[in-house]
Amino acid sequence: MSTVYINSASCISVQDTLKDNFSRDLAPENTVQILKAVEPNYKEFIPPAMIRRMSKTVKMSSVASHYALKEAGIEKPDAIIVGTGMGCSQDSEKFLKNVIDNQEEFLTPTFFIQSTHNTVAGQIALGLQCHAYNFTYVNTSSSLEFSLLDAQLQINDGEAEHVLVGAADEQTDRTMEMYRLNHTIKTEGDLPADYLKSVTNGVIWGEGAGFFVLGKEKTENSYAQLKDIQIINRLDPEKVQEFITHFLDKNNLNNKDIDAVILGFSGDAQSDGYYTQAMDLFEESALLYYKHLSGEFNTASSFSTFMACHILKDQHIPEIMMINNVKKEKIKNILLYNHLAGNDHSLVLLEKA
Fold first, then answer.
1. Which one, of 148, 353, 109, lies nearest residue 231 by Cα?
2. Which end of the chain has the lower number of beta carbons within 10 A, N or C?
């Protein structure tokens, strides 16, 4: 496939990533179980009557997509593709509570309609009055990567010139309670978390939304070239290096050609070993991590993709993300490696635009 360009990038996260020069104020958090997104003033973007009916995922996505389209100078994209792991889970919980409280009788369909995973892409399209290709991917931690891959195919096949791609996930009280019970989230006793050398299982959970406009042509605002994506559901730890090496070979690269590697260390001792294996391949590359800034969640890779775009455009790596001391004068190729609890592994290769 031919290269496509990432022409804009917008993110709402537990950092204040909507403001200018946000990288100066990035602050890690390892002392709480759950991290909340820094939300904008939604009234500036969404009519108040609509805000009341929107879940957090829809509100975050509406604003992030607005910023992405504005930066790219696009009013209506030729396609809208969104990835999510949990969808609009707030409305899902409301619907299920309604079922229980009313003993499965006299139910209003509103919460059910708004709880479906494709609500985000649908609401963005309604707001833009965009009747183009509209699709949602629900593939846990590789939801964004599948969305990017679809956008790449749409552009390469001549079906679209400008594609809005995003990913979003929110937190809900019930789900967080269950994650505490099954030890997905770290216990209070395991805090503060050590993201790089953890000896305990579980993660600190986050949330957020990241949106990008992909295009066939390079523009003045272009951040990066999306070179290639590879996804695999299951991977043995001892096969990590082979998985990465094969991916690089396919792109006529070797480990020395990669200037920076962004790894998804989450502080979960049971699954972070995959990243440790990957590190051994890149002794001459800048090694970075990011989930101490975003928390772990199904589409946390949207935050790493956003950060990678800014690193390539600004040619600057925030110190807070660095694992080793390798610094490059020029950053051309960035490799992103992510998984969730040892499943759904993804590799994304970005090159400076």
1. 148
2. N
Shared domain for 54 and 82, answered yes or no, is yes
* pLDDT of 112 above 90: no
Give the Cα-Cα-Cα angle 205, 82, 109 (nearest 5 degrees): 85
**Tens-digit pLDDT profile for residues 87-98:** 877 777 677 777
Close Cβ partners of 219 (under 8 Å, ≥ 6 residues apart): 5, 7, 72, 73
Radius of gyration of the chain (CA): 20
Average pLDDT taken over every residue of the chain: 94
pLDDT of residue 111: 67
Pairwise CA distance, residues 272 & 198, whole Å:
8
> Residue 260 in contact with residue 288, Cβ under 8 Å?
yes
Instruction: Tell me which residue of 267, 227, 168 sits closest to 3, measured CA to CA.
Output: 227
Same domain for 299 and 168:
no
204 and 329 belong to one structural domain: no
43-57, 211-225, 236-250, 273-287: which has the minimum mean pLDDT?
Answer: 43-57
Listed residue (302, 275, 340, 294) closest to 140, CA to CA:
340
Determine the structural domain holding residue 141 and report its residue range.
Answer: 4-215
**Looking at residue 237, which CATH number applies to its domain?**
3.40.47.10
